Every structure is written in C-alpha cells, then in structure tokens.
Amino acid sequence: MTLEKAAAAGATRSRKRRKMQQVTMTEVAVLAGVSPSTVSLFLRKPASVSAAAGQEIARAIDRLGYVPNLVAGGLAAAGSRAVGIVVPSIQNAFFAETVSTIQEQFAEEGLQILLGHSEYSERQEEALVRTALSWAPAAIVLTGLSHSRATRDLLKKSGVPVVEMWELGAAAIDMAVGFSHREAGATALRHLASKGRRRVAFLGARTQEDRRAAARAEGFAAAAQGQATAVVINHPAPASAEAGALLIARALQQVEGLDGIACSNDMVALGVVFECQRRAIAIPDRLAVVGFGDLGFAASCNPPLTTIRPSGDIIGREVARLVLERLRGAARDREKTVDTGHLLVERRSA
Amino acid sequence: MTLEKAAAAGATRSRKRRKMQQVTMTEVAVLAGVSPSTVSLFLRKPASVSAAAGQEIARAIDRLGYVPNLVAGGLAAAGSRAVGIVVPSIQNAFFAETVSTIQEQFAEEGLQILLGHSEYSERQEEALVRTALSWAPAAIVLTGLSHSRATRDLLKKSGVPVVEMWELGAAAIDMAVGFSHREAGATALRHLASKGRRRVAFLGARTQEDRRAAARAEGFAAAAQGQATAVVINHPAPASAEAGALLIARALQQVEGLDGIACSNDMVALGVVFECQRRAIAIPDRLAVVGFGDLGFAASCNPPLTTIRPSGDIIGREVARLVLERLRGAARDREKTVDTGHLLVERRSA
DNA sequence: GCCCGTCATCATAGCGCTACGATTTCGATG
DNA sequence: CATCGAAATCGTAGCGCTATGATGACGGGC
Q1: In Å, how far are A114, A136, A142, A157 from A150, measured between CA atoms?
Q2: pLDDT-derived band of residue B12, with 50, 70 and 90 as boundaries?
Q3: Which of B78, B103, B130 shows the shortest C-beta gap to A116?
Q4: Model pTM greater than 0.70?
Q5: What is the pLDDT of residue A7?
Q6: N or C: which end of chain A has fewer CB within 10 A?
Q7: Which residues on chain A are in Cβ contact (under 8 Å) with B110?
C-alpha cells in the first residue's frame, strides 16, 4: 500500500517533458516584480498597465531576451494571430503583388501569414483550408469565388472571417474584394472596337482551370455582339510568353484578316509581341494588342503595351483593411464587398 | 464524494471561457469508443493503432467533421508544424519559384509556411524572424547569409533548425542551400570573353541592398582581369525592364565600343533587348547580352536570351529535403550545405 | 471617518492536445 | 495451461499563456 503510493509518486516525479521555451512569461514577471497576468496585459494592452510597471516589464523582457509564445497564447485566447491565404499560384505576378501587400499591412499588426497555393485545384484548396483552419486562424483569405462544397461548409462552420479576393460577381462566403472579370474582358473588346478592329481574338491560357481568365474571355466574346467577329483561343499551359507565341500563330491561321488581340495575361501579350516581331507583323498598325495585368515590363515593351490594370496592390490593401476591421470588432455584416474595378492603360500597342 | 464534486462544480460554475472549437478530440474518442490518447496516436502514427480502432476513429472524425487543433498540439508537443520563411521579396520571380516548390513539398507532410518579406532590410528580417520564432516553428528558412547580429543570436539561442538559401560562400548559421554568386558573375564574363567581347559592362539593380547581385557583379569584374575591360553600372530601383533600358543607355554612353553586357536579372536583360531594338543595335552581333535567372520569357525573346539559370526550384526542393530530414531526426551536423551550382543556358543573345 | 467608484494588479482555471509511463490484451511458447 | 514479450491502449500531467472575476489601493464626496 504505502509502497505502491511511494512508487506512484516516484513515477510521477520522474515524468519530465521537454519545454519548448527557455524564457517564459513567468520569469519575466519574476524579474519585473509583477505577476504574469500583468506581463500578459502589458504585452496586449500596454495602456492599461502603469508606466512604472510597464517600464520594469519592458526592461525584464529585454534583459532576458523573452520571445512570447504565440502558440500558447493562441490556445489560451481561443484564436491565433495568423491569417491563412490560399492563392492559385505564388508564381503568378498578380497574386504575388497582392500577397506582398497584405503581408506588409499585417506585419505592422503582428499578424502572420500562412500561405498556400492550390494550383487552381479545388481539391488542393480544400486541403489547404483544412490545414489553415487547424491553426485557429484570425481570418482566411481565398482567391476567387469558386470553391468546393466542402470548403464552403468547413469555412461557414468554423465561423472564421473569410475574404475572397480577385473576383466579384457571384455570392461570397463572407467578404469579397475584387472586380468583375467579365467587365474587364468587355473593356478589352470595346477598346479594340473603338480602334476600328472588327476581326478579333482572345488568347487565353489555362482557361479550363482559371475561372477568372475564362470570365474575361466570356466578357470579351459577349461584348463583341454586333461589334466584331470574335474568337477565343485557349492554351492549356500556364500563361507564358511561349504560350503567347503559340496562340498568336494559331489565331493568325484561324482568323482571316485578324486585326485585334486581347490576352488573358501580359505575359501572353509579350509572347505575341515577340512573335509579331519575328513575323514582321506591325503592332498596332496591322494588329492591335491588349494585355491584362499591367506587369512591370508592359511600359517598356516595343511597342509599349496597352493593357488592363487589375490593381493587385489595391486588392491587397482592401483585403487587409477588411480583415483588420473585423478583428477590431466590426460587425459580421458591416461591409461585405469592395469593387476595386479595373483600369484600361492605353499605350501604343492598341 | 458527490458533495465534493458538487462543490467543485459550483466553484467553477460562474467562470466561463469561450471555446475555440466545436468538435474536440475527446468527442471523436467518445464516438469511436476509444480514449483520446488513441485518437491522438492515430492522427500522428496511424500504423501504431489497430486497423479496427483506426477505422472506427476515421469514421468518427468524418462523421463529426473534426478539425484537429494544431495550436493546442503545438503547445503540447513543444513545437509546431510550421516553418517560417523570410525572402527579400515575394514579387521576385526567383524567390516565388523557390517558395512555391517548398510549399508543395511541405504540403504533403502537413507543414505550414509562415511567409514574410524583408524588402532587403536586415531590420525587417529581424522582426519577421522574431515573429516566426513566436510560433515555435519546426524550422526557419532565410534568404542569403547576411543577417543582423541580433537575428543570428536569436536563431542560435532558439535551437530551431535554420536553412539559409540562395547563397553560398560565407559561414552559415546552420544549414545552407545555394550557389556562389561570385562564380555566376564570373561565368557571365567568361562567356562574353569566349565570344570575343572585350569591352563589357555588368548592369545591376539595387546592388547596395541585394548582396547577391553585388556578388555577381564582383565576380564579373574580378574575372575580367586581363580578359576584358569591365565596368559595373548600378540602378537603385528594383530589377525591371525599365531599369534595364536606363542602364544600357548609360552603359553605351560610358563605354566606348561596348560589345558585351551581363545583367543581374533577366528582367533587366529584357529592358536591354527592348532598348536595343529601339536603337537598332543588333544583338548579338554588335552587343552580346547575358541575363540571369532564366525566367519564363527568356527563351521566347528576340533574340532568345542567353542566361544563367540559378534553379530556384532545385533550391526549394533541397531546402525542403534538409528541413524534412532534420525533422525526422537527422543529427544537427548531418549535412550542412548543398551547392546547387548555376547553369549557363546558351541561346542566341550571346 | 465612511462609503463608493475607479484603476491597477493579481490568482486561478482552463484552452485542446501530446508525451510519458502504466496497463491491458493477446498470441506464441515451453 | 501458465508465462512471457510485444503490441495496443489508456490515464494523467502539463505545454505557456490569457480571460475572468476578485482583490487592493487610492481618492473624492458627503
């Protein structure tokens, strides 16, 4: 009996867990001569701690090199200061710009970004959302409005703020920031038509997967009614200059007297420009070219590229703003969508 | 017995905390008819749970829509399944490719990426590392070998595995994957020299901040000794086609009889190509151009761009491999550095 | 001098999960 | 059929922090 008890006690005592931290908040508290609660309070709301105590705590933190443990904090507070972001591709300059802007805005607020890319697959997106939710994130940012049923359910059930970006038009899960790609496509068509182009083509890359590129193609085709003869030509590979060269070759072959081109991406337009140089097709005289994206090189091109600017940076800023406002307690139905529009940047190519 | 329980319940009663979770592991365990430990074990090492129990648990998870809480898991396990990655810029295609590859590799292992960009500032890098460490990450991946003293100290003290990528040459904190930029610069010079170019220039963007671009410039200049007259021209803005156009204009003005150019980035080379088209300077006949990066458009250019491929994807793969091996228990001194080298891709421009 | 409101600080009880060691189960063996 | 070892399962004690409600300290008004 007594033996057993002693043995049990001994067993319990020998139980050791590896700590993850060398310096904890408690140690800071001890050194500062306050309680851990006060240290925690100081870290979260410095204003509600007296100046004297605050100074003491700050000194102790500095002296000990204390690094707060957000994992423990997140558990205790029932929610972490991380935001999950899922984009189709990190390598796509559009999303890179947006993610970059969001990260900047968040860094100031101490929010971390959990990033994933889905390769335009709803299945992968779902897996990424699932992982992100495992982190009890403060919010989740997705690209576009098309998601698997399971993704939507998961998100709704979790109650986490959700922002869908880069697309507007269909119903959003929670909040949305973006613009209508249909309209952007229509803008391209109208611009070409205004330049007297009547036999035009839309060159798309990966439109089976990229619903937004597909929407631009649709908008382009729809706006052509009675204005011009429009065809849509697609390439299954990701947008690239190479795809552009291939697509323009096919367009030239397919459309007799082709005189205008809209591309789903400036990279594709760049390929068109290169291929036209090779074939000595004058841009814009014989062929007008409109891009999409207003990527860095668009202005330096020969000729400078007329393109549609989606303003990925503004999208990023607005996404960050919505998330931040929600975190600061804005009502769930405060502001649901932001239309960032699109801008036709007219240069020389069309 | 009953009284005690009641008393305890009474004391606790008024205290309420908001739960972060609707479905917990305990509920899964109850439904599956096993203990929480077994569920946890199943989730981490399915092989060490009997097939029958495993099936039951899987069914319960599915039925309840259970989403594991990695925040709690991370706290209990003294370390999370997140990896902090800091790159100078997400918008830079080099790093985008590497991060993209790393993310793919990690997704399969259930590792999350915490991403930040430092804008080439050691101060910002330090802040990002500090935040990342707050997440008790499984590893931290940094770009380059130059970091603030505080960053190095922080990292060393934390004991977290560190991989520095995209650069080799100086001492690494822990592990490193990359290549010598000095050598890459030398390769560019040697290639130009082999083509008989004797009056050459290196066009760099942002070399005060981008130490790697600076190293390429140095390697280029050093290799020129006795081979050619080399100058280095720099532009303070980030690499872009526009910068390329500006730089080549300055180079042409500065160097009489200029016949060879190496660029710190394919984007800069693209600007050079455009500007030369405008000025009717024949590439490569009058001016040979070597880029860096082998970005998507390099092969479609007019003329196709001779460039140096740094293999950002291979770097990403190797980074992921080193991290994964370390997590699986490889010794801290198992393998420290991986040289991914660089590859001259000869096309038509030089 | 007493009461009360305000502000700063504190003690405590978990957040949901995992590691550890203990315990049980079960087939194989002598 | 008892014995043993391996495999499967379980009970428990935290991981480090924050939210909550309680306590103390202080000052103004009566």
Answers
A1: 20, 18, 14, 10
A2: very low
A3: B103
A4: yes
A5: 34
A6: N
A7: 131
